[in-house]
């Protein structure tokens, strides 16, 4: 497993959602097309209505023209008077016959409209009609004007107030309709995508808790059997398969444990029996003693491999308890003090109190023990070592530093591989699994381990998420300030640090 | 001591039986869970050695059935499964100790002795004595030949465990589990260094050494036979 594998639970924002973006785009296209539809609807309706109006006026003109041809200006005047009479103030049709000086002769307009007229092509004009008391309304009229022989002017038109009113109403209705439609499109898109995002979020949450080792979790499916349910269903199938494979691994490793260890146990037994029977101090007794030791180291390697495999499968998580890291590290340091003393090294500790995380105490002890043991082993006599524990944002950070020969930067990643040895010779003690074990244990606890140059020496930095990190964990006054100050720094600092941190809790006592 | 070995692997069973007989114990063998259960409940044994994977009836089931019958004969579980959770499961079922296969016979013997001692030591003493070495558990004072020996807390716990198991071999793993209370494998000889530090305090200025190293097995604290 890569030591850097580190799953970060990403906070999902609704506005980053693909579904929402899709819904908004859809709402936009929908709104635009509705707007176009309404526009053409209005344009065609309005021009049709105007056309109708014009046709009516043309028909009237046709009637008047016939009369004029038959009976001259006299007949025209009579007909207009008749028609005006018939209109009875309804003011639908407008007629006006005027002299060449534009003095009204007959009709229902009091004067020839000269101001406030809008000329449209082919003698069509539009003008304002001002009604008498009591209404005082102003309507728009549309009319066609002719110049008759002898400079008579004829105006035939209609009050188009109803037409403009109808157009206004249509525009109003369409605007409201469009507004509501756009609102519904966007709100609906938002609501729908939120539902989808929630569903996807649920799938993500399940996937994340599965990634962190809880293989028994399954994604919830509904009876609707929609496409997301299909995704969930397929995901569950995949999970079933993964779980089956994991169980196979466990079964295989159990079988290996049983079927290989039992004959090895017998081998060891026979060797032990033979040694007991051999003459003490004889050559064969020594050979037998060596064979027993070889078989023991074979078994140790074998057990370590099985153990790492089990840890990486994440199956020991069931036994997690709250671990006080101050206490744990204190125990590890205390356990190794005699070795430090034997090599006349100094070991400084600076352990912040009150930092807790859930974990397996034996595995964590083993992990820190392996790192500290390596530091002691590879640092020459009279060397300096330090172990520190501090809070870093929502993580706890354990730094184990020494001023020994260190590890070349190119090898920093490789040392976590199984059976990898720095000196490439297999003569040294240990089985090359110590750091693989550390890496597996730290990953199991959701943490990460990095190696840095200590100028000179090696600095091993282990970060593990704190439990209940949201609420501030009480810490010793004096150390608090520092943890706050460093709390904003999320990445482990890469710049050169002071080789060893000043002792805070207790320097090692040499007696 | 009379011991019942419940183990289906004939070779291992015979090996344990032979080893126990050599040091003067009596040992019976049951080759499956059923037989083991009936023998353990009808006869009187001082200790049981139970393999976990047995034909007919699982080793843990044998122990939990015995415990349900109010039979508290100390039981040492043997298993090829050595993970911490397997160990916890075994101890939860009523086992008193857990040993992973393969094991050194000396380890088995040391643990068996410790188990039978545990049942005998129910009466709590306030002082422990080995030869001229005395430990007062109340005042936490250690004296040898009336000279007070100053011990650090962990050294005190280490010596206490050794004195509680005086005259018997105590293995490194037993010390890790009982004195340091962590279950792990140190890659170095750090336990030896702890012992030699303790030895320098209790033995150095005295004529007869009490704390001996047993090659390939562990340590023993005993009054020198003079």
Summarize the structure.
The complex is a heterodimer of chains A (511) and B (226). With 511 residues, chain A is α+β, with helices and mostly antiparallel strands.
Total domain units of chain B: 2
Radius of gyration of chain B: 19 Å
- N-C termini distance of chain A: 43 Å
Q: Assign a percent range to the helix content of chain B.
A: 40-55%
What's the total number of strands of chain B? 12
Which CATH-level-2 architecture of the largest domain in chain B? 3-Layer(aba) Sandwich
> How do the SSEs of chain B run, as a string of H and E?
EHEHEHEHEHEEEEHEHHEE
3D structure, described in words:
The complex is a heterodimer of chains A (511) and B (226). Chain A is α+β, with helices and mostly antiparallel strands. Chain A is 50% helix and 17% strand. Chain A has 3 domains: 1-211, no CATH class; 227-312, Helix Hairpins (Orthogonal Bundle); 320-507, Histidine kinase-like ATPase, C-terminal domain (Heat Shock Protein 90, 2-Layer Sandwich). In chain A, helix 3 runs antiparallel to helix 4. Chain A is rod-shaped, with a radius of gyration of 47 Å. The relative contact order of chain A is 0.08. Chain B has 226 residues and is an alpha/beta fold. Helix content of chain B is 41%, strand content 22%. Chain B is built from 8 helices and 12 strands. In chain B, helix 6 packs across helix 7 (172-180). The radius of gyration of chain B is 19 Å and the shape is elongated. Chains A and B meet through helix 3, helix 4, helix 5 and helix 6 of A and helix 1, helix 4 and helix 8 of B.
Could you name the key traits of this structure?
heterodimer, A: alpha+beta, Helix Hairpins, Heat Shock Protein 90, 3 domains, six-stranded antiparallel sheet, six-stranded mixed sheet, rod-shaped, disordered C terminus, B: alpha/beta, Rossmann fold, Arc Repressor Mutant, subunit A, 2 domains, four-stranded antiparallel sheet, 8 helices, about 40% helix, about 20% strand
Q: In terms of topology, how is this protein built?
A:
The complex is a heterodimer of chains A (511) and B (226).
Chain A: H1 18-87, E1 93-98, E2 104-107, E3 117-120, E4 124-130, E5 138-147, E6 153-159, H2 161-211, H3 227-277, H4 283-312, E7 321-324, H5 325-342, E8 346-351, E9 356-359, H6 361-378, E10 384-392, E11 395-402, H7 434-444, E12 448-453, E13 458-465, H8 480-487, E14 506-507
Parallel strand pairs in A: 8-10
Antiparallel strand pairs in A: 1-2, 1-6, 3-4, 4-5, 5-6, 7-9, 8-14, 10-11, 11-13, 12-13
Helix pairs in contact in A: 1-2, 3-4, 4-7, 5-6, 6-7
Chain B: E1 2-6, H1 10-22, E2 26-30, H2 33-42, E3 47-51, H3 59-68, E4 75-79, H4 84-92, E5 97-100, H5 105-120, E6 127-130, E7 133-136, E8 141-144, E9 147-149, H6 153-164, E10 170-171, H7 172-180, H8 190-202, E11 211-214, E12 218-221
């Amino acid at each position: 497993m890569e030591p850097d594998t580190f799953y970060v639970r990403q906070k999902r924002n609704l506005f980053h959602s693909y579904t929402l973006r899709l819904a908004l785009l859809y709402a936009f296209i929908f709104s635009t097309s509705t707007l176009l539809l309404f526009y053409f609807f209005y344009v065609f309706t309005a021009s049709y209505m105007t056309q109708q109006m014009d046709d009516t006026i043309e028909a009237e003109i046709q009637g008047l023209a016939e009369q004029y041809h038959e009976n001259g200006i006299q007949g025209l005047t009579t007909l207009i008077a008749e028609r005006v009479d018939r209109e009875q103030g309804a003011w639908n049709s407008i007629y006006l016959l005027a002299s060449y000086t534009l003095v009204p002769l007959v009709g229902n307009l009091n004067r020839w409209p000269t101001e406030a007229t809008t000329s449209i092509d082919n003698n069509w004009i539009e003008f304002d009609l001002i009604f008498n008391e009591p209404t005082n309304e102003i309507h728009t009229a549309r009319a066609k004007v002719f110049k008759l022989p002898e400079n008579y002017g004829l105006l035939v038109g209609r009050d188009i107030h109803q037409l403009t009113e109808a157009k206004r109403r249509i525009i109003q209705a369409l605007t409201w309709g469009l507004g509501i439609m756009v609102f519904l499109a966007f709100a609906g898109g938002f609501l729908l995508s939120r539902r989808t995002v929630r569903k996807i979020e649920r799938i993500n949450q399940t996937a994340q808790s599965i990634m962190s080792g809880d293989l028994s979790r399954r994604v919830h499916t509904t009876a609707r059997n929609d496409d997301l349910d299909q995704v969930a269903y397929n995901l569950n199938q995949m999970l079933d398969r993964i779980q089956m494979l994991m169980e196979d691994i466990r079964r295989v490793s159990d079988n290996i444990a049983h079927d290989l260890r039992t004959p090895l146990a017998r081998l060891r037994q026979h060797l032990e029996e033979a040694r007991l029977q051999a003459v003490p101090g004889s050559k064969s007794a020594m050979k037998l003693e060596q064979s027993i030791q070889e078989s023991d180291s074979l078994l140790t390697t074998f057990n370590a491999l099985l153990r790492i495999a089990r840890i990486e499968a994440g199956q020991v998580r069931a036994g997690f308890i709250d671990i006080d890291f101050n206490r744990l590290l204190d125990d590890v340091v205390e356990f190794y003090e005699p070795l430090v003393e034997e090599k006349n090294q100094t070991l400084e500790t600076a352990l912040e109190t009150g930092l807790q995380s859930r974990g397996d105490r034996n595995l964590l002890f083993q992990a820190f023990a392996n790192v500290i043991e390596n530091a002691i082993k590879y640092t020459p006599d009279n060397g300096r070592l330090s172990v520190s524990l501090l809070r870093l944002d929502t993580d706890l950070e354990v730094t184990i530093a020494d001023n020994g020969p260190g590890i070349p930067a190119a090898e920093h990643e490789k040392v976590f591989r199984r059976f990898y040895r720095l000196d490439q010779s297999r003569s040294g003690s240990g089985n090359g699994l110590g750091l693989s074990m550390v890496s597996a244990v730290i990953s199991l606890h959701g943490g990460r381990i990095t190696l840095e140059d200590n100028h000179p020496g090696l600095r091993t930095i282990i970060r593990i998420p704190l439990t209940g990190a949201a609420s501030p964990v009480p810490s010793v006054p004096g150390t608090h300030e520092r943890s706050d100050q460093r709390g904003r720094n999320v990445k482990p600092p890469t710049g050169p640090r002071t080789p060893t941190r000043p002792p805070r809790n207790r320097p090692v006592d040499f007696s | 001591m009379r011991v019942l070995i419940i183990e289906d692997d004939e070779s291992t069973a015979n090996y344990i039986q032979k080893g126990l007989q050599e040091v003067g114990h009596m040992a019976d063998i049951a080759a499956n869970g059923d037989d083991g259960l009936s023998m353990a409940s009808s006869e009187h044994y001082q200790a049981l050695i139970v393999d976990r994977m047995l034909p007919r009836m699982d080793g843990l089931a044998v122990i939990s059935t015995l415990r349900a019958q109010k039979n508290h004969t100390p039981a040492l579980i043997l298993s090829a499964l050595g993970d911490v959770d397997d160990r916890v499961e075994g101890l939860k079922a009523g086992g008193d100790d857990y040993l992973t296969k393969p094991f050194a016979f000396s380890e088995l013997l040391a643990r068996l002795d410790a188990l039978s001692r545990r049942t005998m030591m129910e009466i709590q003493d306030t002082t422990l004595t080995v030869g001229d070495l005395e430990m007062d558990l109340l005042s936490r004072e250690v004296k040898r030949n009336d000279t007070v020996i100053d011990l650090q807390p962990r050294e005190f716990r280490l010596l206490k465990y050794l004195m509680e198991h005086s005259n018997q071999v105590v293995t490194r793993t037993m010390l890790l589990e009982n004195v340091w209370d962590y279950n792990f494998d140190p890659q170095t000889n750090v336990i030896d260094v702890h012992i030699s530090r303790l030895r320098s305090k209790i033995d150095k200025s005295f004529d007869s050494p009490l704390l001996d190293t047993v090659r390939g097995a562990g340590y023993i604290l005993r009054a020198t036979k003079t």
